[in-house]
Amino acid sequence: MAITVLPAIRLFKLSTAHTHYSFRVNDLDEVEHISYGPEVDDVASLVQVENPGRLVAFAPQPEECDNDSISSKDILSQEFSGFNTGDYRVPALIVQAADGTRATDPRFVSYRIYAGTPLLSELPCAYAGKCEGVETLELKLQDSVTGVSSYLSYTVFPECDVIVRGVRIVNEGASTVDLSRVMSLQLDLRSGSYDMVRLAGAWARERHMERSAVHHGVQSISSTRGMSSHMMNPAFALTDRHATEDSGDAYGFILAYSGNFLGEVELDQMESTRVVLGINPALFSWKLESGEAFEAPQAFMTYSREGLGGMSRQFHDFFRQHWLPERWALAERPILINNWEATYFDFTTEKLLNIARTAAALGVEMLVLDDGWFGKRPDDFSGLGDWTVNTAKLGNMAELARGINALGMKFGLWFEPEMISQDSDLYRAHPDWAISIPGRSRSLGRHQMILDFGRPEVVDCIFRQMKKLLDEVNIEYIKWDCNRHMTENYSAVLPAERQGEAAHRFVLGTYRLYRMLLAEFPNLLIEGCSGGGGRFDAGILRYSPQIWCSDNSDAGERVDIQLGTSLFYPASTMGAHVSACPNHQTGRVTRFETRGHIAMSGTFGYELDLAKLNDEERAMVSCQTAQYHRLNPILASGDFYRLNELDDNDALDGWCVVAKDRQKGFVTIYRRNVIANFRGSRFKLKGLDEHAIYRLDDPYRSGELIVSGGALMTQGFWFELPPGDNASRLIEFSVVS
Ligand code: GLA
Known about the structure:
Shape: globular
Number of helices: 14
Mean pLDDT: 95
Distance between the termini: 39 Å
Oligomer: single chain
Helix content: 10-25%
Number of strands: 38
Bound molecules: alpha-D-galactopyranose
Structural class: alpha+beta
Low-confidence stretches: none
């Protein structure tokens, strides 16, 4: 049983294979968090030991326990905290009542347990899939004055140690209220000695891991860009101070949302740590009439005592079994060639067919036609919104697709559905569909504006255009781009008191278009993108099983980006391509072989003019495409181990991926800077069967290396790298039968 209840002490316990999560309802009907951590048999004992004794919060307590200072909400570990009623820490819920007051006090009313997962109507949600034993506990809490009820859901995925949280707010009172803050997840940890690990970055430098001690006060991650952003990812971890990749406590939190988010960690006066994660209140309010409901996005949490590595692998399993589109979750994705860095806007049908011919002969499986095929789009100043083929430039696209299919390749196409250029037929017909605030000057990003996807007719119009093309042309893949972020949030169809809903309605509209397309074309493979990795989040991953990781395809820089991304997201979700040299973003010169080694740990492809490769490089493309077919199944479902404590001088990075049955895998090592008279390095593999004997396929070593998993994990082995900076090795291994 994933969920147990001890009614006598109103105690709830959620159990996964290796963890437990517990809370109880106290005498005041407050829902008090007890603990989250390794599995324990006797949670009732945990309740005993968690008695806080004689703490003085210097905070008022509810009138009914005026003499009892330890009853202050300010020192109560809560599951879902209100506001302005005695808890001064960051709240989960703020409701403004019809009389303008903003006191909120959610108390327990009832609960129910059901098999399976909740179904959200407009937001992405997890599914049980093939796993048995998935259960959901729903709690009803209510503020007795406003009648606003909070339905908290906890869906337990026992086999991957993940709990998915959700919140639905229902106005069961008589008057209209305004929601000013609804957090999807709150966790009050009773300890105060954590590090926070987050993914920070910038365009072309996304998702670099950053770790710092949590100090008193509030530390946050956030976006107000309308999209999840390059700068901060809507996920973070809390670890104990000494946790490593392999050991120590690690808690992980991921918000399944692609818009403005806020994650806060507060170390309070009593050394407890509060975590909240949800929609960013800065650009949010939601009016709830009597009887109406509001759904918050889902958030995932996990705990591992095997450090950050254990946490990552639990999330990876969850994504692959309960989140990525089922059609693609474990399926092999086509190796693609994208024409963007080969031609930019300067392509013709013949150029594209030439690229396809060369690519097909080398084992590439799909040609993706990037930006510039539609409307009037000689550059990035015009055309967005007019999703009809520029026949003057391309002729008949159905014929082009047939030509590509005849080479044995699939055909994919770039779109930027939420965007509009002022120089477009769509803008001339519907200027009010582009988001801007009347009377205020508008901001442009890459010369473009954003469509108000909060309006159903706008989404319908873009859907009709895309569907027409997908009906007429054999398009099996879409690259869904989003090349600017939101400013001047506004919707021309919302009244003044509902303008706070515009940003969230935009995100719902985006998800709706995804769902409409996938309902119509269930086999369509959609790759997410936003100026590279500006919208790499779980919300998008529910519809796009892969996302272009970054516009920066420099192999060395990609090591940091991909390792950072792997903290939460599986390798199979990261679009990673071999691109031209010198690299277009950094100017760095890197071996072709190394570019392949790094890209092969994602969804693999090429982004260069193959015609410009020399014979040796072309031969390498053939080897790489063949090798990727061997690696892909391991990458799709195997366990990912970061080996980043490889050396003390930061010169090396590495990871290994091991099949679930531990029969085979591969290891990738990358050296940034060469060090003179450095004998190479010894590195230890992880995740192998210690009793099995493995053969390492190591072209740099004379003679085979056949050794036990135990030796490889405890002693490691010495390896040589090619000379110079930016050198790498990719070594496959398998059990000797
Ligand atoms: C973004 C993407 C690129 C490419 C261009 C096209 O920058 O990240 O890969 O598709 O748009 O305009």
